[in-house]
Structures are given as C-alpha cells and as structure tokens.
C-alpha cells in the first residue's frame, strides 16, 4: 500500500505517462466504492480474496479507448452521493480489521507514506470531519517529470507501525455515526475545495453540457435543508 501511494504521487506529475504498483488493489478499490464502474462479479466463498470475484472486462484500444476514457471522466464529474458506496465492508468493518484504524505512516523499504483514516470516515459509517494536518516529510523533491520523486522522513517514523494500538483512531472521539452515508460537517466543503480539483474534465473540452451537482454540493445542500 505504501508503494502504491508513492506511485500514485509520481503518476500525478505532468510528465508521467504510466503507473506502477499493485494495480489490482487499485482496481478492486474502485469497483468496491464506485458502482458505475463495476464489471460483472462471480459468487465466491467468504474466505476467498474479494478482488478475485471481479471479472475484468476486455477493454478496446485506439479511438474506442479514447472515447471510453472521455466517458469515464464525464461519469466521475457527474457522480452523486448515491453513486458512491461508502460502507462497502459494512458499518462495522473496522471491528473485523482493527488495523484499518491505524493512523500515522506506513513504510515499504525506503518508501514512507502517510495513512490517515480520518480523511475518509464515511467508510466506517461516521460523519466526515475536517481531518488534522498530515505529517510532513523532512525533505521532499517532486519535479514535474516524476523521474526524481524523492521524499525523506525523520528516523522516528520507523517506530509508528510497531505500536499500532497506540496509533489507533478513536472513531467515537473523532466524530459521530452518520445518518446518511454522505453526512459531513458544514465546514468540510470549504476545506475540501481548497485542496482538491472538483472536476476532471476541462471546461473547454467538447460541447458545454448541463452539469449536475457534485457530491459535496449534494451533501452541503442536504445539511442546509435540514439544518443539521
């Protein structure tokens, strides 16, 4: 997971043209959370790996692949709160895997990346809050090309993963159970918009189309309507 996080960071560089890491994990994560992109699924025993149930489609190439990519981008821009499966492992999935509430840094070899479940509390059935600031590296170099993507951390980060019990997020202290999967604190919208791109498709690409509300707008309007 640490290696995949690092490679996702490298892939966001303007000059990057590919992606390394455990892409099976990334694909399975997408299928679990976003029902619009799910392929067919086979029945399997509860003990089998979850990712093995998905039947990966045979994707076309050339012009058809480019049209499919444009369609995927449009679907992402049009996502509503109902299109996201927030609690795909159940509202108490963290009780089966307590380590999923670990907060801190994860490491593989010389690669260290931040891991903070408070940034996605809705996957545990809790209302999303503004998470605390992530731990920053001691030194970092992230050129546009991605070929020299280097991050240095202080030596003390090696001790975090060895003490998982002390680094476990207390859900009830951090937030409260949500009523709707899209529940958020009111201030979260402003925080999110200053740190993320709300849309993928460039506004000048193709013919102008009516755009539905974004996921965060649906949530925000819901909160205002019921004054939660």
From TrEMBL:
Residues 1-192 form the Aminotransferase-like plant mobile domain. One of its GO terms (biological process) is meristem maintenance. It holds the Pfam family PMD. This is Aminotransferase-like plant mobile domain-containing protein. It comes from Linum tenue. The lineage of its organism: Eukaryota, Viridiplantae, Streptophyta, Embryophyta, Tracheophyta.
């Amino acid at each position: 997971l640490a290696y995949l996080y690092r490679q996702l960071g490298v892939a966001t560089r303007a000059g990057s043209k590919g992606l390394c890491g455990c892409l099976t994990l990334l694909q399975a994560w997408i299928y679990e959370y976003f029902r619009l992109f799910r392929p067919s699924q086979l029945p399997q025993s509860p003990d089998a790996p979850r990712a093995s149930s998905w039947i990966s489609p045979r994707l076309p190439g050339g012009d058809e692949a480019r049209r499919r990519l444009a369609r995927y981008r449009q679907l992402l821009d049009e996502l509503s709160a109902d299109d996201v499966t927030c609690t795909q492992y159940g509202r108490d999935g963290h009780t089966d895997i307590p380590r999923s509430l670990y907060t801190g840094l994860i490491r593989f070899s010389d690669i260290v990346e931040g891991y903070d479940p408070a940034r996605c509390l809705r996957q545990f059935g809790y209302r999303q809050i503004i998470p605390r600031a992530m731990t920053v590296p001691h030194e970092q170099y992230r050129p546009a090309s991605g070929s020299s993507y280097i991050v240095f951390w202080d030596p003390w980060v090696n001790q975090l993963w060895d003490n998982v019990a002390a680094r476990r997020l207390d859900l009830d202290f951090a937030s409260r159970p949500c009523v709707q999967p899209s529940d958020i604190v009111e201030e979260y919208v402003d925080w999110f918009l200053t740190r993320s791109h709300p849309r993928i498709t460039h506004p000048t690409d193709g013919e102008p189309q009516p755009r539905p509300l974004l996921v965060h707008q649906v949530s925000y309007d819901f909160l205002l309507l019921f004054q939660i």
